[in-house]
Amino acid sequence: MIFIYTPMGGADQSPILSKLKQLLTRGGFPHAQIKMDHFFDFFLLTLGLSLGIVVIYIIAFCYVSVNVPDRPISDHHRDLPRQGPPLLRPGSEQKVSRMHNMSDDELLSRAVLVRGMEFSGGGSAVPKVAFAFLTSRDVHLYPIWERFFSGHRGLYSIYWHAHPSYRDSMPVDSVFYGTRIPSQKVQWGTSSMMDAERRLLANALLDPTNQRFVLLSESCIPLFDFMTVYGYLMNTNLSFQASFDDPAWTARGRYNPKMAPTINVTEWRKGSQWFELNRDVANLVVSDRKYYRIFQEHCQPPCYVDEHYIPTLLNILRPASNSNRTVTWVDWSKDGPHPGKFGWDDMTDEFLNNIRFGSNCSYNGNVTSKCFLFGRKFLPSALEQLLRILPVLIGLDP
Ligand SMILES: *[C@@H]1O[C@H](CO)[C@@H](O)[C@H](O)[C@H]1NC(C)=O
Ligand SMILES: *[C@@H]1O[C@H](CO)[C@@H](O)[C@H](O)[C@H]1NC(C)=O
Ligand SMILES: *[C@@H]1O[C@H](CO)[C@@H](O)[C@H](O)[C@H]1NC(C)=O
Ligand SMILES: *[C@@H]1O[C@H](CO)[C@@H](O)[C@H](O)[C@H]1NC(C)=O
Ligand SMILES: *[C@@H]1O[C@H](CO)[C@@H](O)[C@H](O)[C@H]1NC(C)=O
Ligand SMILES: *[C@@H]1O[C@H](CO)[C@@H](O)[C@H](O)[C@H]1NC(C)=O
After folding, report:
1. Mean pLDDT score, 208-224
2. Fewer CB atoms inside 10 A, N or C side of the chain?
3. How far is the CA of 79 from the centre of ligand 1 (A)?
């Protein structure tokens, strides 16, 4: 037998409902019977709606808890959240969790097989700039970066390597949400730093639409608006990796003769850690084992792998594809192992404009005063002033 309930209280009410109504209206007047009918319909409607809302809540809750931003990251890749299908959040860009359970070896060998997409064919795909953030904990100046990226979804991707035990609290609507990659502890000056950089590059290479690869730290800021930076990087085939030879003990002095014959002292280069590479070079850095092994073995403090490995590698394998200069400004004017740091007091239009236009360099064969796209080292104390000055100065969307 099939019971059909019609909300308007028609003739084919189920026997159970009629029974209930009889019970409820027992001894009542005829008009009470009509009222009860309406009450009953209303009651069932309300019950149905409530159940619906509860179900939607449960689904939403499960969904959000799968995607928790401050997911604890284990030291062992095997314990990381399993690789699953990309999670799509309604109303937002298709955001994929960057977590996976590949070991470094698996990751690197998979990454080098991903061919970069060709964009000349007139397809709908758009080349992206991969922004790789290498931090110990939070991206101090993230509100600046949120403004920088705002409105340019689809033209960039972010990869974030922080200490594995660090639990960030980036909200769901942050551009940094879901951008953490499986990480390992990094010790300043050791090859663990370079390992982290290769890990970042490898993760970014997995996306065939990433064409340019920028390494940034928590103390970096952008010096121009997004489209200027994007155009600057996309309109050249050269990488921006500082690379120079210098007889000083802090440069050529760090060369270890045991590196010969694979690396001759004449090939040894020094440069800034903070690179901007094209896809071919990013792939080269991730696929190289021959030279990296030598660096791991023979370049230990006071030889710093991150200051020599990529400059030397490029000089040996891709000299013509490097501009030999960096696009990340830093102040080495004071002597010492660490560059100048800048806080609240330093943040003026004059100071920032001097970084933005204060030098000359070559770009696509032309001399330009636009040499730096990013700057470091900006302290957390600079943030408040930067938020006031920078958006107006460089033209960020409000
Ligand atoms: C990731 O883990 C799943 C299940 O634990 C396993 O089937 C898969 O092979 C792993 N993937 C990689 C790349 O290790
Ligand atoms: C980059 O190189 C390709 C061929 O290797 C060339 O077609 C393209 O025009 C170059 N792009 C720029 C901006 O020089
Ligand atoms: C290094 O290169 C120089 C000049 O190219 C050469 O004279 C020298 O023999 C090389 N050294 C080694 C160890 O190969
Ligand atoms: C950069 O240096 C290499 C040598 O390492 C040289 O071959 C190349 O022409 C230089 N690039 C530019 C743009 O000057
Ligand atoms: C850069 O070049 C311009 C024009 O040639 C010149 O006026 C300026 O002084 C140069 N700036 C520096 C820092 O050398
Ligand atoms: C270089 O300068 C020349 C002359 O000013 C200009 O025509 C050309 O477009 C410039 N090239 C680039 C890549 O900006």
Report:
1. 98
2. N
3. 10
The answer to whether residue 373 sits within a structural domain is no
Average pLDDT of 282-294? 98
CATH number of the domain that 183 lies in? 3.90.550
Same domain, 39 and 103: no
Q: Mutate which of 79, 83, 99, 104 to test ligand 1's pocket (most atoms within 8 Å of Cβ)?
A: 83
How close is the Cα of 307 to the center of ligand 6, in Å?
33
Q: Which domain holds residue 288?
A: 77-83+91-325
- From the CA of 315, give the closest atom in ligand 4: 5
- What's the pLDDT at 269? 98
Reported as a single tens digit per residue, the pLDDT across 79-90 is: 333 333 344 343
Mean pLDDT of the residues in the chain: 83
Residue with CA nearest ligand 2 atom 2: 237
57 in the same domain as 104:
no
